[in-house]
Amino acid sequence: MVTNRDIIRMLHELADLTTLEEESPQSFKVRAYENAIGGIEGVSGALAEMSQTELTKIKGVGKSTAAKIRELVETSKVDKLERLRAAYPPSIVSLSKIPGVGPKTLKLMRSDLGIETVEDLQEAIASEQLRELPGLGPTSEEKIGRAIERLGLHGKDRRTPIGDAMGLARELADNLRSLPGVVAAQHCGSLRRYSETIGDIDIVVASDDPQPVMDYVANHDIVVEIVGSGSTKTSILNRDGLQVDVRVVTPDQFGAATLYFTGSKSHNIALRQRAIDRDLLLNEYGLMDEGKKTVASTTEEEVYEALELVYIPPPLREGTGEIEAASEDALPDLVNLEHIRGDLHYHTTQSGDGRSSLEDMVDAAISRGYAYVAITDHGEDLAINGSTSEEMLEHRERIAGVEADRDSIRLFWGCELNIGADGSLDYDSDFRATFDWTVASVHSHFDLDQADQTERLLTAISDPSVDVIGHLSGRYIGRRPGIEFDVDAVIDALADTDT
Ligand code: DGT
Ligand code: CA
Ligand code: CA
Questions:
Q1: Which in 37, 121, 212, 236 has the greatest CB count within 10 A?
Q2: What is the pLDDT of residue 356?
Q3: Does domain 256-328 have CATH number 3.40.50.720?
Q4: What's the chain look like in SS3?
Q5: Atom 31 of ligand 1 has which residue's CA nearest to it?
Q6: Which residues form the pocket of ligand 1, taking CB atoms under 6 Å from any ligand atom?
Q7: What is the best residue among 190, 201, 283 to mutate for testing ligand 1's pocket, by most ligand atoms within 8 Å of CB?
Q8: pTM of this prediction?
Q9: Second-level CATH architecture of 160-249
């Protein structure tokens, strides 16, 4: 049975690979797939049960995309995708994700230098061959080399950004939970601890009958290789080289197993020591006393309690003093959704890259119970999607109208200003001062040296119209390293100027 998630995954892959084939993310076909994904994400019914005509009635879904969805449902594969997968194997897709390696550069790298892997690319950089390609030079060669180093994209230690793994892990756990005999399923490991990047996905399943789980995992459509299979554990690789380990334990061992496989390793070691100090033994099966009798194992809460600890949330399990803090009931309060009262960085379709209208964004905020929102569409400097001062003034009227129509939320007329290479900002200072709220952010010139980056940020911070700096380092986990700047100097300036 093809699920809506399978279809979205297929369209994402088509968009990624078509970008490489057409050598442009702006290509008409790529945009068509992306629009279709946007429309499909809002559909609650099963797409697999819809006819081609019904599919084309979904917002953003054209005839050709509808045909591909039907092709996937009827034949379990899509010809165009199979062809693209053969032309652009996973190693090429990894190359395409390196900052500075656009589709055109990638094509030249392959045809002129025979580069097929990140390792090949590193060799070409080391031997100064990359700089010889048309459109490149020593600067871009060095930049690409640094990006590979800083993103940890090379070798077997390659890690996956949390955002690329979380959706897949949750989907797998949801599907596993619906299998016969399964009582519970939980993703564990670094992903459950919300690490920024993860080595692999670890899933623990509670069931007295492991076989349906093992069969489900081995036959899943993301699998390109089965790297390990036993009676209670299966490990697979997907096309991005991401490994998923799925283990089945009996329901009474689920707490001890999720605790163990969530880690971190140093948290586990410290917990085990605490058990030993109490003449107990802790392992992945449970907490046992000297007579091998199980003291606690079904839930994590029971294990912590038996060790005289309050429950430690996974993001704190890093072996950095959390066990001592838990023993004194002095864990920090983590931020939860209900703590979030508003949002001070919001885009709407007023910005070219915004997807939802002002009204929809505000209604979404209201349904989340927010008390306030600042609408911060891009200023005029961002040529692709900024607004002129006249457009901003019209936007202010619209924002006031939307606020007047809804009595449950306070709206601020704001702007996301672009910090130029020299720290300059959009509009003139008088106009900037009229906004209720401004965010100033770096969107380009990521390669300036540390002194220039620091100077640039200090200039923006000292501007009286700036209320907050957005995405301070500009880092994009796994895709783009952050800018380098003098953190102490910048934080001092933020404090001094009340920014
Ligand atoms: P990753 O996948 O590299 O991002 O990091 P983790 O933390 O997910 O590590 P992984 O997948 O190797 O193992 C999952 C958990 O299993 C880990 O967080 C703690 C536990 N574990 C693995 N190896 C050991 C070990 O040698 N000793 C102990 N005490 N626990 C271990
Ligand atoms: Ca892991
Ligand atoms: Ca693992």
A1: 121
A2: 86
A3: no
A4: CCCHHHHHHHHHHHHHHHHHHHCCCCCHHHHHHHHHHHHHCCCCCCHHHCCHHHHHCCCCCCHHHHHHHHHHHHHCCCHHHHHHHHHCCHHHHHHHCCCCCCHHHHHHHHHHHCCCCHHHHHHHHHCCCHHHCCCCCHHHHHHHHHHHHHHCCCCCCCCEEHHHHHHHHHHHHHHHHCCCCEEEEEECHHHHCCCCEECEEEEEEEECCCHHHHHHHHCCCCCCEEEEECCCEEEEECCCCCEEEEEEECHHHHHHHHHHHHCCHHHHHHHHHHHHHCCCEEECCEEECCCCCEEECCCHHHHHHHCCCCCCCHHHCCCCCHHHHHHCCCCCCCCCHHHCCEEEEECCCCCCCCCCCHHHHHHHHHHCCCCEEEECCECCCCCCCCCCHHHHHHHHHHHHHHHHHCCCCEEEEEEEEECCCCCCCCCCHHHHHHCCEEEEECCCCCCCCHHHHHHHHHHHHCCCCCCEEECCCCCECCCECCCCCCHHHHHHHHHHCCC
A5: 265
A6: 189-190, 195, 198-200, 202, 260-261, 263-265, 268-269
A7: 190
A8: 0.80
A9: 2-Layer Sandwich (3.30)
